[in-house]
Input
Amino acid sequence: MIAPNPPPRFVTEAKSSMALNLPPLSITIGLLLVSNLFMTFAWYAHLRDLSQKPWLIAALVSWGIALFEYLLQVPANRIGYTTVNLGQLKILQEVITLSVFVPFAVFYMKEPLRLDFLWAALCLMGAVFFMFRPHLPVA
Output
């Protein structure tokens, strides 16, 4: 008798994460929130903090910060992909990105809070609706 194949690694990672008694989607959202903090700093903080340094220094510092982003983002996507499809995972990521970026822009980069952020958020909510529409309860 041939032994069955073990489940893919991301499935076993997701099952071990459920030991926290949190749904996989909640774990995914939490990891993506933290990973986006790192990503946003990696992409934009050098514009304020390293503007007088050569671009190569800014790139290396950003790359170092981005490593931490990937250490959280990869497991987040693997866990999330066990419960939502790829398009839904991408839209979830975009909503989280905007929800992290706006406070970063306003409080860290001292950008003015603009109405455009609201319009962008409303557009993303439309994208969320269309990506998750098959899973919404019918009224």
Summary: The helical segments are 9-17, 24-49, 55-80, 86-108, 115-132.
